[in-house]
Design brief:
With 137 residues, this protein is an alpha+beta fold. It has a single domain (8-135), classed as Nuclear Transport Factor 2, Chain: A. It is built from two helices and six strands. The chain has helices at 18-29, 61-72, and strands spanning 40-48, 77-88, 92-103, 106-119, 122-130, 134-135. Strands 1, 2, 3, 4, 5 and 6 form a six-stranded mixed sheet that branches.
Length: 137
């Protein structure tokens, strides 16, 4: 995430910059679920590189926030950050991210790449690919 302190209350502009959108996307994954109503177009869709229960039913930002909230509920600790990017050309925004988590199996780290399609200053579509989890000491 480029701005570790981005929250829903900071995101009020009708059209956000690519950096603000990425910060919002990362903050959403870090638990600021109120951003679901602010950073997505009404017809938002998400596609994951693997089977994610419930992802097919996501049809807007509130549904995406609900999906993320349910996912986060399975972890004692879960924190996302940005390793590379975000990079964008106006229509698309991409970055490599990491997640550190703790669950019943112990501590782990995951990496992934997300590509966001931007329409009118909002996220209209997201593709997210996650590498296999690595257990950490």
């Amino acid at each position: 995430m480029t701005n570790e302190h981005m929250t829903a209350e900071h995101m009020t502009a009708e059209h956000m910059t690519n950096e603000e959108l990425w910060d919002g996307w990362a903050a959403l994954w870090n638990g600021d679920l109120a951003l679901g109503a602010k950073i997505f177009t009404p017809e938002f869709r998400v596609r994951f590189g693997r089977e994610v229960p419930g992802a097919d039913q996501v049809r807007d930002g509130l549904a995406m926030a609900e999906l993320i909230g349910g996912f986060r509920a399975g972890f004692a600790h879960l924190r996302y950050g940005t390793e590379i990017g975000p990079f964008g050309d106006g229509e698309f925004l991409a970055a490599r991210w990491y997640a550190d988590g703790t669950d019943e199996t112990g501590s782990w780290r995951a990496h992934g790449h997300d590509v966001l399609r931007i329409v009118d200053g909002r996220i209209a579509e997201a593709w997210s690919i996650t590498a296999p989890l690595r257990t950490t000491a």
